[in-house]
Amino acid sequence: LALSSQTMARALLLSLLAVLLAVPANGQGICSSPNDGHGGHIVDITATIRASLPTWLSETGLGEGHRTETWSMLNGDDANASELTFSAHTGTHVDAPRHFVPWKNQHGMETVDIGAMNGPALLIEAYDVPVLNREALEALDIPNAGVSRLIIRTDNTRRKLMHTTAFTPDYVAFDTEGAKWLVEHRPDIRAIGIDYLSIAALDHLVEAHVALLDHGIVPIEGLVLDEDNINVGWWWLHCAPLKVEGSDGAPARAWLTPVNDPAGAKKPPRKCGQ
Q1: Nearest Cα to 196, choosing from 152, 142, 138?
Q2: CA 101 to chain centre
Q3: Exposure of 128 by Cβ count < 10 A (0-12 exposed, 13-18 middle, 19+ buried)?
Q4: Given the DSSP bridges, would you call strands 149-154 and 119-126 parallel, antiparallel or unpaired?
Q5: Whole-number Å distance between alpha carbons of 268 and 274
Q6: Residue 45: other Cβ atoms inside 10 A
Q7: How would residue 264 be classed by pLDDT, with cut points 50, 70 and 90?
Q8: Which CA distances in Å does 174 have to 145, 171, 212?
Q9: What is the distance between the alpha carbons of residues 68 and 55, in angstroms, rounded to a whole number?
Q10: Could you give the percent of the chain with pLDDT greater than 70?
Q11: Dihedral sign of CA atoms 179, 182, 185, 190 in order
Q12: Are 190 and 148 in contact (CB under 8 A)?
């Protein structure tokens, strides 16, 4: 069947318009909206690595020696280039199982499931609680099912501990019984974020870490969960730790994007027009 050039041109134009309408601006093949976790505003919950950053057991924080400029354009070099020197557990970071679990000594950062750290997460508050023990966790009413990632904002945030250079030993975190309770009663949780340098209280450092890490929970520590721009409820958590082979931990960039609800978050991205 012969078609006129005008008809062919019209058909080609319609086909092109259909393609353009079907592909969103982000090029990912899905429609994005401000509240579905795939678009909208981004809330950075990462601590900035700077000299004043609190570090483990230190009164003086990270200090100036964490970054050395080996090349400097101010000194006539063609580019600026830096070398970084600091602990794998600096600022916002992720723990690998080998950090505390002797029988998982081969499980470094390269083995940590990145999927556990990325997806819908429930952010809850535990204020006026000195330690995340069994009683405190029972009172928090964490859902029995449907929660894979849990972010806990505590008095660490209200005390601005991630903005305080000197190490604070009485930070809020899990004790051993609290960690064991969570593993037993909320076994679906795969990642937990906390607003200070350790998910385990100082007096329960080893045992609480072992209970969580041995169960396969990924601790995301040192989050900055300011109350001004982060409400309680469901968020889409994004966390990208460095993939350092054999390391017991690694610094990470972490951020939140809005999500409507956990049921909607678990659905596949909408196709355009749906």
Answers
A1: 152
A2: 22
A3: exposed
A4: parallel
A5: 12
A6: 27
A7: very low
A8: 21, 10, 10
A9: 18
A10: 80
A11: negative
A12: yes
Cα separation, 201 vs 223, in Å, equals 16
* Predicted local confidence at residue 239, as pLDDT: 98
Q: List the structure tokens of 58.
A: 């230190």
Q: Let me know: does 91 contact 99? Beta carbons within 8 Å.
A: no
Mean pLDDT of 203-218: 98
Give residue 4's pLDDT. 53
- Asked whether residue 97 carries a pLDDT value surpassing 70, the answer given is yes
Reported as type and span, the H/E element at residue 22 is helix 5-22
Q: How far is CA 197 from CA 46, 79, 93, 96, in A?
A: 12, 34, 8, 14
Helix (H, G, I), strand (E, B) or coil at 41: coil
pLDDT digits 0-9 by tens, 51-96 = 999 999 999 999 999 999 999 999 999 999 999 999 999 999 999 9
Measured CA to CA, the distance from residue 230 to residue 148 in angstroms comes to 19
Kindly tell me the sign of the dihedral angle through the C-alpha atoms of 111, 44, 266, 197. positive
Q: Is the pLDDT of residue 16 over 90?
A: no
Half-sphere exposure of 62 (CA within 13 A, CB side): 25
Distance CA 207, CA 211 (A): 6
- Spell out a b/e string for 237-259, using b for 16 or more CB atoms within 10 Å of the CB, else e: bbbbbeeeeebbbbbbebebbbb
* 149, two tokens: 């990632």
Distance CA 196, CA 167 (A): 10
**C-alpha distances in Å from residue 225, one per residue of 123, 206, 221:** 10, 25, 11
